[in-house]
Specification:
The protein has one domain (5-211): Beta Barrel (Porin). It has one helix at residues 5-27; strands at 34-36, 44-53, 63-65, 68-78, 83-98, 103-119, 122-124, 127-144, 150-152, 155-167, 172-182, 184-189, 192-198, 201-211. With 212 residues, it is mainly beta.
Length: 212
């Protein structure tokens, strides 16, 4: 199966740009009064988003990997009008195939536990842009379609995200976010250890957040 990560990333970026354009068009009809600080102090933010995640490169030599589903939940607390901190948990899955000879190997699941900080420096009408950074652990597992044993290692997780909330009212906002997540380690198989097992990915998320 040919490797299509570059094409997949370009398609995903196009989708994100279209969503951003939609938000901008809606917001252009609103009052674009700029406010410094994107949130009130002492607020809890709960979010649930879903989307898709292409890998940034081949998982390992002679493999092809599908664009996988992505689910993300988060809980953050605002210490002031621009700084939040909390926890993010993210799950993604990728189908894995061998290219030569062509064969489905199974799928890799990743659960990432990510303590997170987030910056919200400004508010533009109903739109609040932000950037966040997370450090934690990727817990990797593999479900196999063919006989054999593939055991990917758990890895250090580093995630950098950019996004925006579109406030519907005081408590609810629509959300879109793009992120890069590092997931670079090794795997053990019946044939020995594979040192280059890189499941780092780009994530594209769409969902909602609740403020209280």
């Amino acid at each position: 199966m040919p490797y299509r990560s570059v094409r997949s990333c370009l398609l995903a970026l196009l989708v994100l740009c279209l969503v951003g354009t939609t938000f901008s068009t809606v917001a252009s009809a609103e009052d674009w009064k700029q406010q410094f600080g994107g949130i009130e102090a002492g607020k809890w933010v709960l979010g649930i988003r879903a989307g898709f995640a292409p890998l940034t490169q081949q998982l390992s030599d002679n493999t092809s990997t599908s664009i996988g589903p992505l689910v993300n939940v988060q809980g953050l607390y605002s210490f002031n009008t621009w700084l939040l901190a909390g926890l993010m948990v993210e799950w993604e899955r990728h189908g894995v195939s061998r290219e030569r000879p062509d064969a489905d190997l199974g799928h890799q699941d990743t659960v990432s536990v990510l303590p997170t900080i987030e910056l919200r420096p400004v508010k533009l009408g109903q739109i609040t842009p932000y950037v966040n950074m997370s450090f934690g652990v990727n817990v990797n597992s593999f479900g196999e379609d063919v006989p054999g044993v593939i055991r990917p290692s758990n890895t250090f997780a580093w995630r950098l995200g950019w996004g925006a909330d579109y406030r519907l009212n005081e408590r609810v906002a629509l959300n879109t976010e793009w992120a890069y997540k590092r997931n670079d380690g090794h795997a053990h198989t019946n044939a020995g250890r594979i040192d280059d097992w890189n499941a780092s990915s780009f994530g594209f998320l769409f969902g909602a957040k609740v403020f209280f």
